[in-house]
Design goal:
Number of helices: 11
Helix content: 25-40%
Shape: globular
Radius of gyration: 21 Å
Order of helices and strands: EEHEEHHEEEEHEHHHEHEEEHHEEEEH
Largest sheet: 11 strands, mixed
Distance between the termini: 37 Å
CATH superfamily of the largest domain: Alkaline Phosphatase, subunit A
CATH architecture of the largest domain: 3-Layer(aba) Sandwich
Number of domains: 2
CATH topology of the largest domain: Alkaline Phosphatase, subunit A
CATH class of the largest domain: Alpha Beta
Number of strands: 17
């Protein structure tokens, strides 16, 4: 279901208008700030209809730029989406992208140092590059942000970190400066904000920069600013139970979630203020997104599914772009886009040529953003161990890869493993219209099968139940 484009109010109080390109020549070598939230639901921001969260800074960011209603993550889990962003390719082209999420800590599961990436290509063209926050694309001593093109790194290696003790899912301290462990006191969201602001201030007036700011908020454990006692309890639980303690199934609340997002929003506001203060605002592409759909406390209406699933709630994410010198403020679009498109777009905007030996799977959106060149009808594709999906236009096919068909409300009616939805009228993916459009369904299934055969095969072993935060119970 696409959002109506005429009735939503932006933060400044004026109604959003459908996106139209301004048609101005983009400046050469813009700065890039890509802010990635962790497990943020599609409806968790005020500008996306939140009923619970107060997000004035992110709402203002949307009011100052372009809000996308049909933006998708490359995967419904975190590490594959990050692999897709940095490489510009389907996660399944690399072994590291096959784990959902990444758990294996060995020399075979990570982004290889020799693989061209968004940061390496930008760095080689003269950009100063930095990652602040969550990495989760391979463990030391084999992999790190510094080995794929980032000049600087301050953050955590694992996919989850306690907000005060900064331990990972095994109970090990997980905070690094470069590749050296460090100890810092403070709430993790605030520490990442401080480091991002410092990077922007230090780069003022110098060569263009690319800052990848990966917050862990609002990912579990459910700890808001000031919850040090709760952090102590979670830390003890991790030390006693391992990852089960970090999943924090006995914790959290809507109010805790609200306060975690408020801290995230405040942090983004401080980083945006640093751009303003240093004079970098107009020539900086700012992107804000989530790595996948929301988890337990997220607001996902009107979608079904959540993190870990290829229904809309698991892959459609909030996505905002601001580029004051190029993009008109207060605009909105329902053009379907996916993570890899932004890798291609940012490289295009920076004047970088992708490595032909590692062709990108995304499409540069720059001609559309700058000159209004239509993107044309194209297909977006996803693959997980248990599902496959293809969206083309208003139609989306979801295929169950498991041997047994999905449960069905009517036991007398066999459930099909392949369903077709018309997202133009059915964003909740309730009405299977495959019988009404059999050729469309068959075409999209063939597209998925072709992609599936092109990518690396999944190993036969099943991942640990509940690693995405779903299903693991004591």
């Amino acid at each position: 279901m696409t959002s109506r484009l005429s009735d939503r109010q932006c933060a400044a109080g004026a109604a959003e208008v459908p996106f139209e390109a301004m048609g101005v020549a983009p400046p050469a070598r813009p700065n890039i700030l890509f802010v990635l939230a962790d497990d943020l639901g599609w409806g968790d921001l005020g500008c996306y209809g939140s009923l619970q969260n107060d997000t004035p800074h992110l709402d203002q960011l949307a009011a100052d730029g372009l809000r996308l209603t049909d933006a998708y993550a490359a995967s419904p889990t975190c590490s594959p989406t990050r692999v897709a962003l940095y490489t510009g390719r389907y996660p399944g082209r690399l072994a590291v992208g096959l784990e959902e999420p990444l758990l294996t800590r060995d020399e075979h599961h990570g982004i290889p140092p020799g693989h061209p990436t968004l940061p390496s290509l930008l760095r080689d063209s003269g950009y100063r590059t930095a990652m602040v926050g969550k990495w989760h694309c391979g463990w030391l001593p084999w992999f790190s942000p510094l080995r794929i093109g980032f000049d600087e790194f301050f953050g955590n290696i694992d996919g989850v970190a306690d907000y005060y003790s900064h331990i990972d899912s095994t109970g090990t301290p997980d905070l690094y400066e470069g590749e050296e462990p460090v100890v810092r006191d403070g709430y993790y969201t605030e520490l990442l904000t401080e480091r991002a602001v410092r990077f922007i201030e230090d780069r003022a007036g110098e060569d263009p920069f690319y800052l990848q700011l990966n917050y862990t908020a609002p990912h579990f454990p459910w700890e808001a600013p000031g919850d040090r006692e709760l952090s102590d309890q979670v830390t003890q639980a991790v030390q006693e139970k391992g990852p089960r303690g970090m999943f924090h199934f006995d914790g959290g609340s809507l109010d805790t979630y609200r306060r975690m997002i408020a801290s995230l929003d405040d942090g983004v506001g401080q980083v945006l203020e640093a751009l303003e203060r240093t004079g970098a605002r107009d020539n900086t592409i700012v992107i804000f997104a989530s790595d996948n759909g929301g988890e337990r406390w997220a607001f996902l209406w009107p979608f079904v599914g959540s993190k870990g699933h290829l229904e809309e709630g698991g892959i459609r994410v909030p996505f905002i772009v601001r580029w004051p010198s190029v993009l008109r403020a207060g605009t909105v679009t329902n053009e379907p886009v996916i993570t890899m498109d932004w890798t291609a777009t940012l490289l295009d905007a920076a004047g970088c040529t992708p490595d032909p030996d590692y062709p990108l799977d995304g499409q540069s959106l720059l001609p559309w953003l700058v000159g209004g060149v239509p993107l044309g009808e194209r297909s977006l594709r996803w693959r997980t161990r248990s599902q496959g999906a293809v969206r083309r236009g208003r139609f989306k096919m979801v295929h169950d890869r498991r041997a047994k068909p999905l449960w069905h409300m009517d036991d007398d009616v066999p459930a099909s493993r392949t369903k077709l939805y018309d997202l133009g009228v059915d964003g909740r993916e309730m009405a299977d219209v495959s019988a009404h459009h059999p050729q469309v369904c068959a075409d999209l299934l063939r597209e998925f099968t072709a992609m599936d055969e092109e990518l690396l095969p999944y190993e036969q072993s099943e991942p640990l139940e509940g690693v995405a935060g779903i299903g693991l119970r004591d």
